[in-house]
Design a protein that fits this description.
Elements lengths: L3 E6 L4 H10 L23 E6 L9 H11 L3 E4 L6 H6 L1 H22 L2 E7 L22 H12 L5 E5 L2 E2 L6 H9 L5 E4 L3 E2 L2 E2 H13 L4 E4 L6 E2 H11 L7 E4 L21 H5 L8 H13 L6
Parallel strand pairs: 1-2, 1-3, 3-4, 4-5, 5-10, 6-9, 7-12
Antiparallel strand pairs: 8-11
Helix pairs in contact: 1-7, 2-4, 4-5
Length: 308
């Protein structure tokens, strides 16, 4: 049997870059491996990896997607390509649905025509956040924002044989994310104000990549919630980031979402905690606690990784 052919869309994003690194056997996060329990691959499968960012593959172009699939004939497709600028999506719903909805339709069609098991990376924003408990994979979505609706559209476009992986509050050493924002703000003066009425589970790409590899290479199907363990608020998260990085957590002050100035264009779910029930009930390993993963990421950033 030859090497497994793996296509990664959105390969220039923070998730895509760690996924390509993991597939190609490079150690993520500045030499600090993600928790090996999340990969469950044993010896790494020989892979031929094609990672394409938006500059090399616009998933909203049907002809471009079909051309890539026809030439590469992937066995597994990690569809991480998306427009994830939540507030910008609110102002341009056509672009959001063209990339996140129609783009997923194009990937799904190409997979049916030329082969390839699709693993689609989705989001906690498909829920409205009104539940008083963590969301199960079988709970009914009800997105509040254009971004959430467009990602849910992508879920409906992929085949029932595909895997849909919902995750939340994603952070990694590459690209822009809340950890880097907090560290940048901490370099200034005065208090840092973060909302204390939005709850979710921070998820770190070095760990998420291992779970995606398991789901893709074992050709699992259906919906999976995959996050690092432990709910928190943005206020609590910011305090932890400062503490881990050697700063003063006391600089962080809690505010309500309604007090944000200026207010955010896109509504956020107040509760977006995802219960990783499908992983747990299937006997698959859960990702480690987010605090452990945060320490690894801050250490990696301190070592000079992911500064671009």
């Amino acid at each position: 049997m030859g090497a497994l052919r793996v296509l990664v869309t959105g390969a220039s994003g923070q998730m895509g870059r760690d996924l390509v690194d993991a597939l190609e056997g490079r150690v993520p996060a500045g030499g600090l491996r993600a928790d090996p329990r999340t990969a469950r691959l044993g010896e790494r499968l020989p892979c031929e990896v094609l990672g394409l960012g938006h500059d090399r593959l616009d998933v909203s172009s049907r002809s471009a997607v079909l051309g890539v699939f026809e030439g590469f004939r992937p066995d597994v497709v990690f569809h991480a390509g998306a427009w994830t600028a939540v507030d910008a999506c609110e102002a341009d719903p056509d672009r959001a649905f063209r990339v996140n909805g129609l783009g997923s339709r194009n990937v799904a069609e190409a997979a049916r025509r030329f082969g390839g098991h699709v693993v689609y990376v989705s989001t906690d924003y498909v829920f409205d956040g009104t539940s008083d408990r963590p969301y199960l994979e079988w709970d009914r979505p009800n997105p509040l924002s254009v971004y959430g609706r467009s990602k849910l559209a992508g879920e409906t476009e992929v085949s029932h044989e595909a895997a849909v992986v919902r995750t939340s509050w994603v952070c990694g050493v590459h690209g822009s994310n809340m950890v880097k924002t907090i560290l940048r703000l901490a370099g200034g003066e005065g208090p840092l104000r973060f909302v204390d009425d939005q709850r979710g589970c921070p998820t770190f790409t070095a760990d998420l990549a291992g779970a995606l590899l398991t789901i893709g290479t074992e050709r699992l199907s259906g919906v999976y919630h995959v996050t690092n363990q432990g709910p928190t608020t943005w206020f609590e998260f910011a305090r932890q980031v400062l503490g881990v990085s050697g700063g003063d957590p006391g600089r962080v002050e809690p505010i309500a979402t309604s007090d944000l100035d200026p207010p955010r264009p896109a509504p956020r779910p107040a509760n977006s905690v995802l219960d990783n029930a499908a992983l747990r009930l299937s006997g698959l390993p859960l990702l480690p606690d987010w605090r452990e993963a945060l320490e690894r990421m801050v250490a990696a950033l301190g070592a000079g990784e992911g500064l671009a």
